[in-house]
Write a sequence for this structure.
């Protein structure tokens, strides 16, 4: 599992991230995959944000190449530090491939 920390400012558009998923050195076939990213305040069971292919994650073509994007986004959460992970589900197999922190700094324009 890879780690990647996201740093942004409240109200700014984060540029997004391109990811290539490899399994045993070969691109993962993402055909039919469900990809989700959940972020929470430490200790909370309720996600502060949930991204999926319907809302913020794009599997790139061809799906057999293992490439996906976490699309550019203005994170809607309050300033603070959030823990996130990104998992991929194919059939009944669920695996977390990416985790880290989302740090949202305050901005003079936002409370």
């Amino acid at each position: 599992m890879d780690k990647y920390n996201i740093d942004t400012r409240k109200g700014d558009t984060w540029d997004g991230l391109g990811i290539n998923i490899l399994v045993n050195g070969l691109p993962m076939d993402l055909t039919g995959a469900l990809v989700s990213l959940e972020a929470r305040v430490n200790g909370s069971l309720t996600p502060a944000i949930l991204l999926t292919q319907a809302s913020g994650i794009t599997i790139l073509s061809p799906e057999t190449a293992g490439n996906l994007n976490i699309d550019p986004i203005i994170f809607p959460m309050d300033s603070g530090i959030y823990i996130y992970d990104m998992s991929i589900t194919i059939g009944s197999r669920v695996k977390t491939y990416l985790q880290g922190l989302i740090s949202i700094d305050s901005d003079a324009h936002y409370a």
